[in-house]
Amino acid sequence: MKLKQLESLLGHLQQFSNPKVELEQYPTGPHIASRLLYTAENSFDDISNKVVADFGCGCGTLGAAAAFMGAEQVIGIDIDSDSLEIAAMNAEDLELDIDFVQCDISKLGWRGQIVDTVVMNPPFGTRKKGADIDFLSVALKVASEAVYSLHKTSTRDHIKRAALRDLHASSAEVLCELRFDVPQLYKFHKKKEVDIAVDLWRFVPKRSQGKDN
């Protein structure tokens, strides 16, 4: 599937109607989502015929993109039942087979590397300090191939240090810098839309290093 086609398909997805600020719910736009999954598949073969988990899936944009890119199985996980309801409707409307699980990522009871790839747009950690690292920690434990994640560019050094030193990733690479459009969703937002610089990261879990070479 071509990049423009993927972005166009994702543009039809329904997004949050009443986002929850405590969960840092911001929609992952089709521009960023399409580039994340397109890069993961076409540069690294990490999506097609793979088991892919979408952590903090929200309305299911990344999971839908993974399904469009040929994932064997897609599992969307989110703590918020309202988001999962929208995600399930989106998958049904697009005739995509995606499994959804309501769960706090920090309490996910998976043991071992039971999925191939994790894709995620985690909380930036502005409301709950360290939330971004909490997501990354679990992702690196359950993925056997790679973890793709979006983090604020301003936290680049912190993310790399945490991934390599504290979470024992075998590699942590910024693939590109993107602009994340944050619409005026909450009362404390003063502007209609704000562009935030974010990094698209690819992390390789420790035990899959041999596969990557």
Task: Characterize the structure shown.
This protein has 213 residues and is α/β, with parallel strands linked by helices. The chain has helices at residues 3-10, 30-44, 61-68, 81-93, 131-142, 156-166, 209-212; strands spanning 51-55, 73-78, 99-102, 115-120, 143-152, 171-183, 193-204. It has a seven-stranded mixed beta sheet with strand order 3-2-1-4-5-7-6, sandwiched between helices. Helix 3 (61-68) links the parallel strand 1 and strand 2. Helix 1 (3-10) runs antiparallel to helix 2 (30-44) and helix 2 packs across helix 3. The two termini are 26 Å apart.
In short:
The protein has 213 residues and is an alpha/beta fold.
Tell me the layout of helices and strands.
Elements: H1 3-10, H2 30-44, E1 51-55, H3 61-68, E2 73-78, H4 81-93, E3 99-102, E4 115-120, H5 131-142, E5 143-152, H6 156-166, E6 171-183, E7 193-204, H7 209-212
Parallel strand pairs: 1-2, 1-4, 2-3, 4-5
Antiparallel strand pairs: 5-7, 6-7
Helix pairs in contact: 1-2, 2-3
